[in-house]
Amino acid sequence: GAVPKGNATRENIELLGLQEGEVIFKCPKCISIKPVRAHHCSVCQRCIRKMDHHCPWVNNCVGENNQKFFVLFTLYIALLSVHGLLLGGYHFVTCVGSEWRQCSSVSPPATVVLLLFLIFESLLFAIFTAVMFFSQLSAIWNDETGIEQLKKEQGTWERKSRWRSVQAVFGRFSVSWLNPFTLPPLSARHQPYSYAV
After folding, report:
1. What are phi and psi of 49, to 5 degrees?
2. What is the pTM of this model?
3. Helix crossing, 67-97 with 108-141: angle to 10°?
4. Is 95 one of the catalytic residues?
5. Banded pLDDT at 71 (limits 50, 70, 90)
6. In 10 A of CB 129, how many CB atoms?
7. Could you read off the pLDDT of 92-148 as tens digits, one per residue?
8. Which of 27, 41, 44, 55 is catalytic?
9. Residues near 37 by beta carbon (within 8 Å), at least 6 away in sequence
10. CA dihedral 166, 171, 177, 182 (to 10 degrees)
């Protein structure tokens, strides 16, 4: 959902064919025409449509065109962390039950330390990514980005129904919702100054 840098030229503004009294906003930092609900990212140095936040994990902004991928990323990391938690717990119980015979190629104290580290790390990642996953679902459900929630911005845009908000991110309901290799739908109201690069 990145807005092209430097597109706020006189020629581009004239190409928009604005009506008398119609207002557009220009970002003073990246000199671009700023679409509705776009915010400037100080890390990426550009405006992002429907920007939720800048994620250091993926070194990119989460916005209009990649929110589906971020939601699936957090979901799958949370599920893998729970899987690691269950495997670590099962291995620990099995080792205690067999009194550490044929349990591991390392000594029992080292195995305990490694298993406790795995369980702790899995629990930490599972909680963190599950919270991120549910906060993203809440933002999608309420048609409000994280920045809009933090700034307590009153919606000047036309709010979608909850189902339309979910479809705007994931597309029509199908198994492809869970597939990170399918593209999310393009914005229906594709404005000439807010194309993705």
Report:
1. -70, 135
2. 0.82
3. 150
4. no
5. very high
6. 21
7. 888 888 877 777 777 888 888 999 999 999 999 999 999 999 999 999 998 888 888
8. 55
9. 49, 50, 145, 148, 157
10. -140
